[in-house]
TrEMBL record:
Coiled coil: none annotated. This is DNA polymerase kappa. It comes from Actinidia rufa. Residues 103-283 form the UmuC domain. It is found in: Nucleus. Its main location: nucleus. Keywords: DNA damage, DNA repair, DNA replication, DNA-binding, DNA-directed DNA polymerase, Magnesium, Metal-binding, Mutator protein, Nucleotidyltransferase, Nucleus, Transferase, Zinc, Zinc-finger. The keyword Glycosyltransferase does not apply. GO terms for biological process: DNA repair; DNA replication; error-prone translesion synthesis. Gene3D superfamilies: 1.10.150.810, 3.30.70.270, 3.40.1170.60, DNA polymerase, Y-family, little finger domain. GO terms for molecular function: damaged DNA binding; DNA-directed DNA polymerase activity; zinc ion binding. It catalyses: DNA(n) + a 2'-deoxyribonucleoside 5'-triphosphate = DNA(n+1) + diphosphate. Its cofactor is Mg(2+).
């Protein structure tokens, strides 16, 4: 088993400083990565965020070392046993391969930024980010060429791109355009899965059959329809399952598409050199763990190290990794299930201004209430998540005696949870509601109230 060693250059400490800010996104090809890393490092050093990242890096390093110790303790007999376990499991997983469905993943191109440019054409061609000096929600492709990206503090983005224009977030506007795109999606799959405001999964198997069209032709037609309906471009990926379709949609962004045939050989060839970070569900920690403890950088290497993965990970985790190596993903239409919770959050510059914090809480209470009314739900368990100025995450929750749905009731109980933490300096507040009650009478009452109000 190959093992990757990660070493930092003490003369260039930024080379080993990896955060979400330094991960590449579509449109960032050709960016001077070392320059971005250096600026992010220099402007973050000494901050609470930097200290938190160092703590996380230390945690990841310790986890990798523990994993390496476990690998070293495996005997030849252990390795032989777990390889047999892995080989058997690979055959079982292979037997589940379904090449009968055609899935399409559609992803709007720099959605928030594109909507703002559509609303204000003078922004066209200029580097622009949606957000503020404290945090960016997204950046257009002109800004990405400088290394500017989503989830980056605006002051760092401005350092990378001095000409960067900031536009405030307007979720009402984005929701409007998202609704327009979804009207188009319904023409191809009435049961499409919305992953967020700007992306969705569609099972286009029936659409292909009914229209006597290929997956690529359907993708082309859908993208054209979205543009005609909204004036916005999108990218699409077509593949035999949702996991692969999502990967494919990123290949020819922006305003492009990629089709992976429903053929096992084509899938295995495609997946062989695919970096593991391209796979949804493999984040920074897992990527580092697989790379530095097992030497796994591509999906194909999952299978090459299958015995070790089965030896050191749980059955479910090992199955996921092996499925990735085989290019397997979900092809079934998910069952309609009651959501476990509804949540909303707001990020802002760190502050201990209590009036400001309570106002943010009031905004969240209103948003939660709106979402609950739309779905005809009342909840009993209210949870508040707080991220402090030092990036410590605190959680408080309460289960109420009665079900609630109004913003007034949500705010009343959320305020009590927040008050218990004051005084405190926060940079994020999230509120969620769960433990639902759903009945026809309740739903009718909520619908009447909702219709009356609007």
């Amino acid at each position: 088993m190959a093992k990757s060693e990660s070493s930092g250059d003490t003369g260039r400490p930024w080379q080993s400083y990896h955060t979400v800010y330094t991960n590449a996104k579509a449109g960032m090809e050709g960016v001077d990565k070392e320059k971005v890393q250096r600026i992010v490092y220099e402007m973050s050093k000494g901050s609470k965020y930097f200290e938190n990242e160092e703590r996380k890096e230390a945690y990841i390093k310790q986890k990798i070392e523990n994993m390496q110790d476990q690998i070293a303790k495996l005997t030849d007999a252990d390795i032989s046993h777990y390889q047999k376990v892995a080989d058997k499991r690979i055959l079982e997983l292979e037997a589940t391969r379904d090449l009968t469905r055609i899935w399409l993943h559609v992803d709007m191109d720099a959605f928030y930024a594109a909507v703002e440019t559509l609303s204000n054409p003078s922004l066209n061609g200029k580097p622009m980010a949606v957000g503020s000096m404290s945090m960016i929600s997204t950046a257009n492709y002109e800004a990405r060429r400088f290394g500017v990206r989503a989830a980056m503090p605006g002051f760092i983005a401005r350092k990378l791109c001095p000409e960067l224009i900031f536009v405030p977030v307007d979720f009402k506007k984005y929701t409007h355009y998202s609704d327009l795109t979804r009207k188009v999606f319904q023409n191809y799959d009435p049961n499409f899965m919305a992953a967020s405001l700007d992306e969705a999964y569609l099972d286009i198997t029936n659409a292909c059959y009914e229209r006597d069209a290929t997956g690529g032709e359907i993708a082309e037609e859908l993208r054209k329809s979205v543009y005609e309906e909204t004036g916005l471009t999108c990218s699409a990926g077509v593949g035999p399952n949702r996991l692969l379709a999502k990967v494919c949609s990123d290949i020819n962004k922006p305003n492009g598409q990629f089709v992976l045939p429903n053929d096992r050989m084509a899938v295995m060839a495609f997946i062989s050199s695919l970096p593991i970070r391209k796979i949804g569900g493999i984040g920074k920690v897992t990527e580092h763990l697989l790379r530095d403890a097992f030497g796994i950088a591509t999906c194909e290497e999952m299978l090459q190290n299958s015995g070790f993965l089965c030896a050191l990970f749980s059955r479910s985790s090992a199955d996921f990794f092996l499925s990735v190596g085989l290019g397997l993903g979900r092809t079934d239409a998910p069952e309609v299930k009651l959501r476990k919770s509804i949540s909303n959050e707001r990020t802002f510059s760190a502050t201990d201004d209590e009036a400001f914090l309570y106002q943010k809480l009031a905004d969240l209470a209103e948003m939660l209430s709106v979402d609950m009314k739309k779905e005809g739900l009342c909840g009993r368990t209210l949870t508040l998540k707080l991220k402090t100025a030092s990036f410590e995450v605190r959680t408080r929750a309460v289960t109420l005696q009665k079900y609630i749905f109004s913003s007034e009731d949500i705010l009343k109980h959320a305020s009590k949870l927040l008050k218990a933490e004051l005084p405190i300096s926060l940079r994020l507040i999230a509120a969620s509601m769960g433990y639902w009650s759903v009945c026809s009478l309740l739903t009718d009452q909520i619908t009447e109230l909702w219709n009356f109000k609007f």
